[in-house]
Task: structure prediction
Amino acid sequence: MVRAIELLKNNFGVSQTYKHDVVKNDEIILTVYWHPLTIAEREVIQRKSTSEDTNEFALQLMIAKALDEDGNKLFQDGDKASLRREVEASILQEIQLAMIEAGQSREVKEAKADLKS
Result:
């Protein structure tokens, strides 16, 4: 019998990679990749956030998790002020929402079925 921890790591582990294309006029401007958010990473991001503001958390999440195709970080902590002041909020929110919603398409019923096998 497969242990529950192995099922969870194999199906929802951090080795998964998600991606989101930022498109303008039918042209891909930027492709953002990331691995799933872990509880440990969430705690670090929450400590870095200077307030309880969800926008602050989402921006810190994007800065911490966004990668290029080769796995290199797209943003540095020093980019935060520029992102806040110089990039359309809707574009940042699009990327952040994709990151937050990644992996949520799998239903609980599917995960429960895997645990029974």
Q: What stands out?
A: The two ends are 8 Å apart (CA to CA). Residues 106-117 have pLDDT under 50 and may be disordered.
